[in-house]
Design goal:
The structure holds 2 protein chains of 2 kinds.
Chain A: H1 3-22, H2 24-28, H3 33-55, H4 80-91, H5 113-125, H6 137-149, E1 170-175, E2 184-185, E3 192-201, E4 207-219, E5 227-231, E6 237-242, E7 249-252, E8 256-258, E9 263-271, E10 283-293, E11 298-301, E12 305-306, E13 310-312, E14 321-325, E15 334-337, E16 343-352, E17 358-367, E18 376-383, E19 386-389, E20 391-392, E21 398-409, E22 414-423, E23 430-431, E24 433-434, E25 441-445, E26 451-452, E27 455-456, E28 467-468, E29 475-476, E30 480-483, E31 486-491, E32 499-500, E33 507-517, E34 521-533, E35 547-553, E36 559-564, E37 574-576, E38 580-582, E39 585-595, E40 604-609, H7 611-614, E41 615-620, E42 635-636, E43 640-642, E44 646-651, E45 667-670, E46 676-684, E47 692-697, E48 700-703, E49 712-719, E50 722-723, E51 741-742, E52 745-753, E53 758-767, E54 776-780, E55 788-792, E56 800-803, E57 811-814, E58 818-823, E59 831-834, E60 840-850, E61 854-863, E62 885-892, E63 895-900, E64 907-912, E65 916-917, E66 922-931, E67 945-946, E68 948-950, E69 963-967, E70 973-975, E71 986-989, E72 994-998, E73 1008-1018, ...
Parallel strand pairs in A: 1-11, 2-13, 14-27, 15-30, 32-43, 44-56, 45-57, 59-71
Antiparallel strand pairs in A: 1-3, 3-9, 4-7, 4-8, 4-10, 5-6, 5-9, 10-12, 10-13, 14-16, 16-22, 17-21, 17-24, 17-25, 18-19, 18-22, 20-21, 23-30, 25-26, 28-29, 31-33, 33-39, 34-37, 34-38, 34-40, 34-41, 35-36, 35-39, 40-42, 40-43, 44-46, 46-53, 47-52, 47-55, 48-51, 48-54, 49-50, 49-53, 54-57, 58-60, ...
Chain B: H1 2-26, H2 28-31, E1 38-40, E2 61-63, H3 84-103, H4 108-120, H5 124-137, H6 142-155, H7 159-171, H8 175-192, H9 200-210, H10 215-228, H11 231-242, H12 249-264
Antiparallel strand pairs in B: 1-2
Helix pairs in contact in B: 3-4, 4-5, 5-6, 6-7, 6-8, 7-8, 8-9, 8-10, 9-10, 10-11, 11-12
Classes of the chains: A mainly beta, B mainly alpha.
C-alpha cells in the first residue's frame, strides 16, 4: 500500500472517528419510533406540497417562504434566521415575548428560552412532535408547508392599542388577529377551524345575530366539506352543520346575541368525511360573506372575511374515536316515575383508535323528548367516573358538558361516559338524550392536534333503539317515559298484634305502610272495615259503633285524618273524609281509637281497607293525574286483643331460692363489697292491656341472726343502670327488722312498664366491711297485698297483680377472697428453643379467685433445678442458669402485665400491673422468655434446659408466698395457694437440624449391593450449620439370621458391608461431606462392615450388635470420610470424625449393604433411622468448683460424669463431647448445633443426642421395606 | 509503518474518548451515589469453607446504619425498676457489642446482642432498628425475622409487619424453628391481630401437617378450638394429643379431663 493511500485511509478513519466523537451522544440517543414514522409522513407531505405549488395557476403573494432556514435552531443559536423565525412566530400567534427583545417589532437574532417556548407552542399547535422547542428538520418541513399556503399576514395592531368601538348602532365584524394557521384539512376531521371572527356590538344595545353566511373559497371543491359550522369561544359547535349550495355558500342559522359594547368570537369550521382522495391537495378556505341580524342594526364589515387556506389531505392518518353504547346505558326504554333521581338516561363507550391518544373535550347531548327543561333536574355527564355539570343551549335542546382540560384516552383504550339526571315533573312526557351528530362529541388527537370525527358501527335507523345510525341523530338513545306517582298500602308489622285496653283513648287498632313513589299523592277519602269478635263466654254485644274517636296518625304522631266514630256493621265502619297528602316514601300510618265498655277481655278487633275501592279521588300532587292505588284487595291490619291491666312479679331464676337456675346457688360475698346484686325481680306486663305505673315495691328481707340486718346498707332497686330509689329513698335496713320482714322501697318517680313487656330489676346492697363472716342475708318477695303498688298508667285503673313468693338466694358473708395458682394444661410441652429467640412461651399459669375479684401484684418465679421428678425424662431436670435468659415477660392475652429478670440467682419476682383475677373466674398468665445468645464468650450454654416455674414460696423470703394480690372488695392481702409448678421448658440450642426420610426408587430386594435407606439432613439458615457424629439404623429382617458379620452362616441369607454415603444433591450424584475418594463414602475399615465386626464388648465398630447372638439388628455408623480404607484390619477403631451440614443447606445420605442369599428364604428387609427417646443423661457435680476453680458450668471434663440412669443428684448438662454422648444409653443420633464455629470439635461440649429432632421420632423414622 | 500505528492509535484514543464521554454522561447517576454511605463488609461471622459460594455477604456493601443510636437504652419508665448494677452490666455489654458492630457491621451476633439488650430495657424501636439493619445482611435468617415478628407484633402492634416477618421466618426454617414461628404467628392472630382470628387453625393445621409429632402445635390447636367454641375440633385435638408420645403424666390427665368436660357441655 502506498504511502499516500495509507495517509488517505488514515485520514478518513480519523475523520470518521472525529465525527463519531463529536456526534457520539446524539447518535446514541434513542430516537422515538413515532418520530421516525412521522418523518415519513412529513416527507410525503413535502412532496405533495411541492407538486401543488407547481400546479398553482395564480401564485400567491405569500407562496414563497418568508424565511430560509438551512440549519437546526436551538438554544444559543444566533443569526438572521433566528430573527426571521421570531417574526414568523409572532405573526403566527405564538408570540415570543410580550415586550422587549423578541416582542413584535423587536425580534432579535438570539435563540433564547422565550424563543424555545414559542417554538414549542407552535410545534404543539401544528402537530410537530416532540414539541420540545428544537427547530430542526421536521419543524423546517412543517414551516415550509405552512408558509407555502399562508396568505399575507393580517396587519397586527400595535400593542396596547385598543380595538375600535363601533361609533354608532350596529355590529362590527372583523377577522380575529389570531387566525388558525394554515394546515391540513384531512379525512374525518371535525370542527377544523378555518376563519376566526370577532363580532363587536355597539355600546347602545345588544345585537342579535340570526345567521352567518359563509362561502367556500380557494381552488377546491365544496364536497371537500361534509359540512361547515360555527364554533363559540369554547370551541362548542353552534347549532347544526350545513352544506354548501350551488353558490358555494351556506347559512349558519344558530341565533346568538352579542351584548352591547362587548365582543363574541365565532370560528368558522369545517367537517370532512372519511374520504378526501378526490380533493387531495386542494386549497380551501371559509369566508364570511354576510351577517343577518335582527332589527335594523347595521353590520359593519369588509366582506369577504376569510382566514388562511387549508390544504385538503387524504393521506394523513389521524387518530380515530369509535363510539358504542356504554356499559352504563340503561339498555332499554323505560318508564320512570316523577321523583326518580340520578337516573342514567344514556351512556357511551369511547374508544381511541390505534393512531393517536385522544383528548375528549366536550359533548352536546340533544334532548329530543317532549319533557321540558323544568321536568329534568341535575342533568350531569359522568366521564371516566368524574361528574361534570352541563349547560343548556339557548334553544334548550342541548345539554353541553365541557371536560376541563380534557380527558385523555390512550391509544386502543376506552372510557365510559353517561348522562344522568332527576325526573322532577312531566308525567306522560318523554326524555330522550341523543348524540345528534358525531361531531357533537369533541375529541382531539394528541399527536397531530386535529379534532377527530367520531364514528360508530351503524344499523338501520329505528327510533329510540339505543343504536347508531347514519341518519341523525347518529346515536338515538333509549327513551324514558315519565310516569306519574304510585301509591300502595300494606299491613305494618311494626304495629303488631297486641293487647289493648277498654275505655282508653288512642288504642291501636291497626297499622298500615303506605308506599308512595314518584310524587306526593293526595287521597280525598279513605274507608276502613272493622272486624270485632267476642271472646267465647263473655256474653256481651259489641259492634264497630262501640269504637269511637278513631284517627289516622302518621309516624310523627300527627293526626292526618279523623277523629271519626265507628259505624255499626263493620263494613266501611270507619270513614275518613279528610284529604290526606301522602308524601313520597314508605311511611307507617296507625289507626287509633277508643274501645267502649261493651268490649271485654279477650275480645278482638281488626281493621282493613281495600285501597283500590276504599280510597277515592287519588291524584298525583305534581302531575295532577289520577292514580289507581294498590292493591285492589283488602289489606288487613294486625288483630288487637282486649285485655285488662295486669302484672306478675317473680324472683328471677338466677337469684331465687329454689335454685332452678345453675347460677342461682347461694353466694359468698366478701365483707366490704359494694353494690352487690342480692336478687333480681322479674316484672311481666305481657298480658296487660295497658301500660302500668309502679310506685313502690316491698321485697322480703331474710337474715340468719338477729341484729345483723344493718350489715347490709344502701339498698337500691335498679332498672338497668338506673336506680329507682335514691337519696332519701335508699333503704338501710335496721336491726329492728326481723327475719322475713317486708321492706318498702319507694321509687323516686313511678316506673312505667309498657304493656306487653317484661322487665328485670336488680336489688343491690353493700355488705359492710365489718359484717360478720358466716352470717347470711337474702332478699325475696312475699305474696301479699301492698308488696307492689301499681295502677293503669293512663287510666289509673287497678291492676290485676300476681306475685310468686320466693325467699331469694342466700348471701353468706366471708372475710376475704382466695387465690390459687397452678400450671395450666395449655402450658407447652418440652421443646427445642433457638438461642437468641425472643418471647418464647415457657409456661402458662392458671389463677383462680373466689369470693371476690383479686388484683395480682407480684408473682415468684424460679429457674427449675434438677432435684425433682427423676422418673420423668422431660421435666424436673433443668440445667438452666440465669445467664441462659435475658429476661422474662408476663402476659395476660395480648396485654403485657409484667416482667422479671434472673440477674444472679435462680429466683426472681415479677411485678405485675393491670391483672385482676375475677371472682369465680380465672386468668391465664403466660410466661415468655427472651433466650440469651450462644456463642464465643456469650452467656448461654448449649443444651441447657431452661425451665421457669412458679415459686410458691420464695427462697429469699420464706414468709412471703409466691403470688400475692389484694382483694378488690375486702382490700385485704391475699396470697395464692398452690405448690411449685413443674413446667416443661425449652432446650437451648444454637440451631436444630431436620431429618427427612426419602423413599427409595425401587423397593425390590435382590442379591448384591443394595440401597436400604435414604434420608436428608438439613441445617437451617443462620448459625453455623450442624455437625453430625453418628447415625444408627434398625435393620430388621423377616428371617432369622440376617446381619451376619461373623459370616458363619455362609450358606444362608445375610446382609454385610453396611456403608453410608453422603451427597450434596437430591439426585445422590455429587459426593460430599469431605469424602476423600470422591465417592461420598463415610465409613469403612473399622468403621465399615466388610470385615468381621461383631462387637459384643461395646468397642466401636461398624456393627453395634444388640447382643452377641446371631440376630443383631442395630447398625451404628461413625464417620471417617478422609480415611475409609481399613488397611490394618485390626478391628480397632480409628478416631471418628464429624461431618458437617452448612447453614441453609442439606446433605443426602444413603445406607447400602451387600445382600447375600436372598433367594433362599424370600425375606423382607425393613430399615429405619433411629432417634432418641430422652435427653442424654450426663451430669456434673457443682462441688468441683472448689477443686478445679473453673466456672463450674459443665464445660470441662472434670465437671461432668456419666449419669447412667441416676437422675437423683447433681445438676445436668446436656451438651457434652461427642464421645461422652456416645457412652449413654440414648446415643442413636449424635449431632452438634455448632454453637461457636462451623467445625465444632468432637471434644467440644456441644454435642447432643437425637431427642426432639424434627423428622426423627423417638422410635425412628418410618421404615423402608425391601421385598424380594 | 510508524505513522500507521500513530494514526490507528489516534483513532483508538479518539474513539475511546468519545465512548468514554458517552458512557460517562449516561452513567453519571450511578457514580453519583454517595460512597460514604457504603461500608465494606469484612465479616468475622464464620463462613462456609466447604461451600464458598454460600458466603457472598463478604463481598456485599451495606448502607450505613441509620437507626437509633447503638448505645441508647431508651427511656422506658421500667428502667428505673432495674438495679443500678444490672443497668451498668447491660450498658457495658451494649457498649462492647456496639463497638464490635461499628468495627464490623457484618457481625451477626453483635447485632443480635444489641437488639437483645435494647429489648431488655423495653426499648423496642431500638431493638427493631438493630434487627432491621441485620436483615439487610441476612434477609432470610430465621432469628432475625422471628424476633422482628415478635417485636412488631407483641410490642409495637404493627401486625402487618409482624405477619410478614413471621411468614418470612417460616419460609426459611424447618423443624423446631418452623414450629416456633408458626406458634408465634398463631398467638399473633389469636390474641392481637383479631381480624385474622379465624386463620389460627388453618395455620396450626399447616404446621401439624408438616410436623405431625410436634406436641405444642397440637396443644395450641386444641385450646384454640376450645376458646373458639369448636367443641368437636377441640375434642379431636385433645384425643390426638393422647395418642402422641412425649406427654407428661400431668398432661395426660389434664387432656383427659378436657375431653370429659367438653363432652359434658
Amino acid at each position: 500500500m502506498g504511502n499516500n493511500i495509507t495517509k488517505k485511509i488514515a485520514s478518513v478513519a480519523v475523520s470518521a472517528a472525529t465525527v463519531a466523537w463529536l456526534s457520539g451522544f446524539s447518535m446514541l440517543v434513542p430516537v422515538a419510533h413515532a418520530q421516525t414514522s412521522l418523518q415519513a409522513q412529513i416527507d410525503a407531505l413535502l412532496a405533495q406540497i411541492a407538486a401543488l405549488q407547481a400546479q398553482l395557476a395564480t401564485p400567491s403573494a405569500s407562496s414563497s417562504a418568508a424565511c430560509s432556514f438551512t440549519k437546526d435552531l436551538t438554544l444559543g443559536s444566533t443569526g438572521d434566521d433566528v430573527k426571521c423565525l421570531q417574526q414568523y412566530l409572532n405573526g403566527a400567534g405564538h408570540q415570543v415575548s410580550a415586550s422587549g427583545a423578541g416582542s413584535p417589532g423587536s425580534e432579535s437574532t438570539y435563540f433564547g428560552a422565550k424563543t424555545q417556548a414559542a417554538v414549542a407552542k407552535w410545534q404543539a399547535a401544528n402537530g410537530v412532535a416532540p414539541a420540545a422547542g428544537y427547530f430542526g428538520k421536521i419543524s423546517r418541513a412543517k414551516y415550509s408547508s405552512l408558509a407555502a399556503a399562508a396568505p399575507a399576514p393580517a396587519p397586527t395592531p400595535a400593542p396596547g392599542t385598543p380595538a375600535p368601538v363601533p361609533s354608532g348602532s350596529g355590529l362590527t365584524v372583523t377577522l380575529a388577529s389570531d387566525q388558525p394557521a394554515s394546515g391540513l384539512f384531512g379525512e374525518s376531521f371535525s370542527s377544523r377551524p378555518f376563519t376566526k371572527l370577532t363580532l363587536r356590538a355597539s355600546a347602545d344595545g345588544d345585537v342579535i345575530v340570526k345567521a352567518l353566511v359563509v362561502e367556500r373559497q380557494g381552488q377546491g371543491n365544496d364536497s371537500a366539506f361534509s359540512g361547515a359550522i360555527g364554533l363559540d369561544e369554547d370551541s362548542i359547535r353552534m347549532g347544526v352543520a350545513k352544506t354548501f349550495g350551488s353558490d358555494h355558500r351556506l347559512r349558519l342559522a344558530e341565533k346568538f346575541t352579542v351584548k352591547a359594547g362587548q365582543s363574541r368570537t365565532v370560528t368558522l369550521a369545517g367537517d370532512s368525511d372519511s374520504d378526501q382522495d378526490a380533493y387531495n391537495g386542494q386549497l380551501v378556505s371559509l369566508a364570511l360573506v354576510g351577517v343577518e341580524v335582527e332589527g335594523s342594526t347595521a353590520v359593519n364589515a369588509s366582506f369577504p372575511l376569510a382566514g388562511n387556506l387549508m390544504t385538503v389531505n387524504s393521506t394523513l392518518a389521524i387518530g380515530s374515536m369509535t363510539l358504542a353504547r356504554g356499559a352504563l346505558d340503561p339498555g332499554s326504554s323505560q318508564t320512570k316515575e316523577i321523583g326518580s333521581v340520578n337516573y342514567r338516561f344514556s351512556g357511551l363507550r369511547l374508544t381511541a383508535g390505534a393512531n393517536e391518544d385522544v383528548l375528549v373535550r366536550s359533548i352536546k347531548w340533544n334532548q329530543s323528548g317532549s319533557a321540558g327543561v323544568s321536568d329534568l333536574k341535575n342533568v350531569k355527564v359522568v366521564l371516566d367516573g368524574v361528574t361534570y355539570e352541563t349547560t343548556l343551549s339557548s334553544d334548550n335542546k342541548y345539554y353541553i358538558a365541557k371536560f376541563g382540560d380534557g380527558v385523555k384516552i390512550l391509544k386502543g383504550l376506552n372510557k365510559e361516559m353517561h348522562l344522568s339526571g332527576d325526573v322532577a315533573d312531566g308525567s306522560a312526557r318523554t326524555a330522550d338524550f341523543d348524540l345528534y351528530r358525531y361531531a357533537d362529541l369533541r375529541a382531539t388527537g394528541l399527536t397531530y392536534g386535529y379534532d377527530i370525527l367520531p364514528s360508530a358501527t351503524e344499523v338501520a335507523a329505528s327510533a329510540d333503539d339505543g343504536n347508531f345510525h347514519s341518519a341523525e341523530p347518529n346515536f338515538d338513545a333509549f327513551q324514558v317515559t315519565i310516569g306519574s306517582g304510585t301509591i300502595d298500602a300494606q299491613n305494618a308489622p311494626s304495629v303488631g298484634a297486641q293487647n289493648v285496653a277498654v275505655n282508653l283513648a288512642n288504642q291501636p287498632l291497626g297499622g298500615f305502610i303506605v308506599d308512595v313513589k314518584g310524587e306526593d299523592v293526595s287521597v280525598a277519602a279513605i274507608n276502613f272495615d272493622a272486624s270485632t269478635i267476642e271472646s267465647a263466654g263473655t256474653g256481651g254485644t259489641i259492634d264497630t259503633n262501640d269504637i269511637t274517636n278513631i284517627t289516622l296518625v302518621d309516624e310523627d304522631g300527627k293526626v292526618v285524618a279523623g277523629p271519626v266514630d265507628g259505624v255499626a256493621g263493620g263494613n266501611n265502619a270507619i270513614r275518613f273524609s279528610d284529604t290526606i297528602t301522602f308524601k313520597v316514601g314508605r311511611k307507617v300510618y296507625s289507626l287509633k281509637g277508643k274501645l267502649g265498655t261493651d268490649f271485654a277481655s279477650n275480645d278482638t278487633v281488626a281493621a282493613s281497607t281495600t285501597p283500590g275501592s276504599d280510597w277515592t279521588t287519588v291524584k298525583g300532587v305534581t302531575s295532577g293525574v289520577t292514580i289507581t292505588p294498590t292493591p285492589s284487595s283488602a289489606v288487613t291490619g294486625s288483630t288487637m286483643t282486649v285485655k285488662a291491666a295486669s302484672l306478675t312479679l317473680t324472683v328471677s331464676p338466677e337469684t331465687n331460692a329454689g335454685g332452678s337456675d345453675a347460677s342461682s346457688t347461694a353466694q359468698n360475698v366478701v365483707a366490704g363489697t359494694s353494690g352487690y346484686v342480692f336478687s333480681k325481680f322479674v316484672l311481666d306486663a305481657s298480658g296487660s292491656g295497658e301500660d302500668i305505673k309502679i310506685t313502690s315495691m316491698a321485697p322480703r328481707l331474710g337474715i340468719s341472726a338477729v341484729n345483723t340486718a344493718d350489715d347490709i346498707t344502701n339498698c337500691q332497686i335498679l332498672d338497668g343502670a338506673v336506680a329507682l330509689n335514691s337519696g332519701t329513698n335508699i333503704v338501710n335496713p335496721t336491726n329492728s327488722a326481723a327475719n322475713a320482714d317486708n321492706v318498702s322501697f319507694v321509687f323516686d318517680t313511678p316506673m312505667v312498664m309498657a304493656k306487653g313487656t317484661i322487665k328485670t330489676l336488680s336489688m343491690k346492697c353493700n355488705l359492710i366491711s365489718g359484717a360478720d363472716a358466716g352470717q347470711q342475708w337474702r332478699w325475696g318477695i312475699a305474696n301479699a297485698a301492698g308488696n307492689m303498688v301499681s295502677t293503669g298508667s293512663v287510666s289509673g285503673q287497678s291492676v290485676t297483680e300476681t306475685i310468686t313468693a320466693d325467699s331469694g338466694r342466700i348471701i353468706t358473708g366471708v372475710s376475704g377472697g382466695t387465690l390459687t395458682l397452678a400450671l395450666d394444661s395449655s402450658s407447652p410441652s418440652v421443646k427445642l428453643v433457638a438461642s437468641g429467640a425472643t418471647d418464647q412461651t415457657l409456661a402458662v399459669f392458671r389463677l383462680n379467685a373466689t369470693n371476690e375479684d383479686v388484683r395480682l401484684d407480684t408473682i415468684g418465679l424460679q429457674l427449675a433445678t434438677s432435684t425433682t421428678n427423676a422418673a420423668d425424662a422431660t421435666i424436673g431436670n433443668a440445667s438452666n442458669s440465669p445467664s441462659d435468659l435475658s429476661k422474662v415477660t408476663l402476659w395476660v392475652g395480648a396485654l403485657k402485665v409484667g416482667e422479671a429478670t434472673f440477674s444472679s440467682s435462680d429466683y426472681a419476682t415479677g411485678t405485675l400491673s393491670g391483672v385482676t383475677v375475677p371472682k369465680d373466674g380465672q386468668i391465664l398468665l403466660t410466661v415468655k422468655g427472651d433466650m440469651a445468645n450462644i456463642g464465643t464468650n456469650l452467656t448461654a450454654r448449649p443444651g441447657h434446659l431452661v425451665v421457669i416455674n412458679y415459686d410458691s414460696q420464695s427462697s429469699s423470703d420464706e414468709t412471703n408466698l409466691g403470688a400475692v394480690g389484694v382483694g378488690i372488695s375486702s382490700g385485704t392481702t391475699i396470697a395464692a395457694a398452690g405448690s411449685d409448678t413443674a413446667s416443661s421448658g425449652g432446650r437451648l440450642v444454637r440451631t436444630v437440624p431436620t431429618v427427612e426420610r426419602i423413599a427409595l426408587a425401587s423397593a425390590t430386594l435382590a442379591n448384591g449391593a443394595k440401597d436400604l435407606f435414604k434420608f436428608k439432613v438439613t441445617a437451617p439458615l443462620g448459625g453455623n450449620g450442624v455437625g453430625l457424629y453418628k447415625f444408627t439404623f434398625d435393620v430388621a429382617t423377616s428371617t432369622g439370621v440376617a446381619l451376619d458379620n461373623s459370616q458363619d452362616n455362609v450358606s444362608g441369607f445375610r446382609i454385610n458391608d453396611f456403608i453410608v454415603k453422603c451427597y450434596s444433591d437430591a439426585a445422590f450424584s455429587s459426593a460430599s461431606c469431605g469424602s476423600a475418594d470422591g465417592s461420598g463414602q463415610l465409613n469403612s475399615g473399622t468403621f465399615a462392615t466388610s470385615s468381621p465386626h461383631e462387637d459384643s464388648a461395646g468397642s466401636r465398630s461398624g456393627l453395634d450388635l444388640t447382643n452377641d447372638t446371631d440376630q443383631p439388628s442395630i447398625v451404628e455408623v461413625y464417620f471417617n470420610p478422609a480415611n475409609t480404607a481399613d488397611t490394618t484390619q485390626d478391628e480397632t477403631a480409628d478416631p471418628s470424625e464429624a461431618i458437617r451440614v452448612p447453614a441453609g443447606e442439606s446433605r443426602w445420605f444413603v445406607l447400602s449393604a451387600t445382600i447375600i442369599g436372598s433367594g433362599t428364604t424370600s425375606p423382607q428387609v425393613s430399615t429405619k433411622l433411629l432417634g432418641d427417646g430422652q435427653w442424654l443423661k450426663a451430669r456434673y457435680t457443682p462441688n468441683d468448683l472448689s477443686t478445679t476453680g473453673d466456672s463450674d458450668d459443665g464445660t470441662t471434663d472434670e465437671d461432668v460424669t456419666s449419669a447412667g440412669n441416676n437422675w437423683t443428684t447433681g445438676r445436668y448438662v446436656f451438651a457434652t463431647t461427642a464421645t461422652r454422648v456416645d457412652t449413654g444409653d440414648d446415643d442413636n443420633f449424635i449431632w452438634s448445633p455448632n454453637s461457636t464455629n462451623t467445625s465444632q470439635s468432637n471434644v467440644d461440649y456441644d454435642w447432643l443426642n437425637g431427642f426432639l429432632i424434627p423428622g426423627l421420632p423417638t422410635g425412628g423414622t418410618s421404615a423402608q421395606t425391601l421385598t424380594l | 509503518m510508524s505513522k500507521i500505528i500513530l494514526y490507528l492509535f489516534s483513532f483508538l484514543v479518539v474513539l475511546a474518548g468519545g465512548t468514554g464521554i458517552y458512557f460517562g454522561i449516561l452513567n453519571n447517576k450511578q457514580s453519583a451515589e454517595p460512597v460514604a454511605d457504603n461500608l465494606p463488609i469484612a465479616s468475622t461471622t464464620p463462613v462456609n469453607t466447604e461451600n464458598p459460594v454460600n458466603a457472598p455477604v463478604a463481598e456485599r456493601k451495606l448502607p450505613k446504619y441509620q437507626g437509633q443510636a447503638l448505645r441508647s437504652i431508651g427511656s422506658d419508665p421500667a428502667i428505673k425498676d432495674f438495679t443500678s448494677e444490672v443497668i451498668a452490666i447491660k450498658k457495658a455489654e451494649l457498649q462492647k457489642f456496639a463497638e464490635i458492630a461499628e468495627k464490623d457491621s457484618s457481625d451477626t451476633l453483635a447485632w443480635l446482642k444489641i437488639s437483645e439488650i435494647k429489648k431488655f430495657f423495653n426499648n423496642y424501636q431500638g431493638a427493631v432498628d438493630a434487627l432491621e439493619y441485620l436483615k439487610l445482611l441476612s434477609p432470610d435468617d430465621f432469628l432475625v425475622n422471628f424476633n422482628l415478628g415478635n417485636l412488631y407484633g407483641f410490642y409495637l402492634k404493627d401486625y402487618k409487619k409482624a405477619e410478614d416477618n413471621f411468614q418470612n421466618a417460616m419460609n426459611h426454617s424447618g423443624g423446631a424453628q418452623l414450629a416456633a414461628a408458626i406458634s408465634s404467628l398463631a398467638d399473633l392472630y389469636k390474641d392481637f391481630y383479631k381480624a385474622k382470628y379465624d386463620q389460627v387453625d388453618d395455620l396450626l393445621l399447616l404446621g401439624i401437617e408438616t410436623m405431625p409429632d410436634d406436641l405444642n402445635l397440637v396443644i395450641k390447636l386444641a385450646f384454640y378450638y376450645k376458646e373458639a367454641g369448636n367443641k368437636e375440633g377441640a375434642i379431636q385435638s385433645f384425643e390426638r394429643l393422647l395418642s402422641m408420645s412425649g406427654l407428661t403424666g400431668a398432661q395426660q390427665k389434664a387432656f383427659e379431663d378436657e375431653i370429659a368436660a367438653l363432652k359434658q357441655t
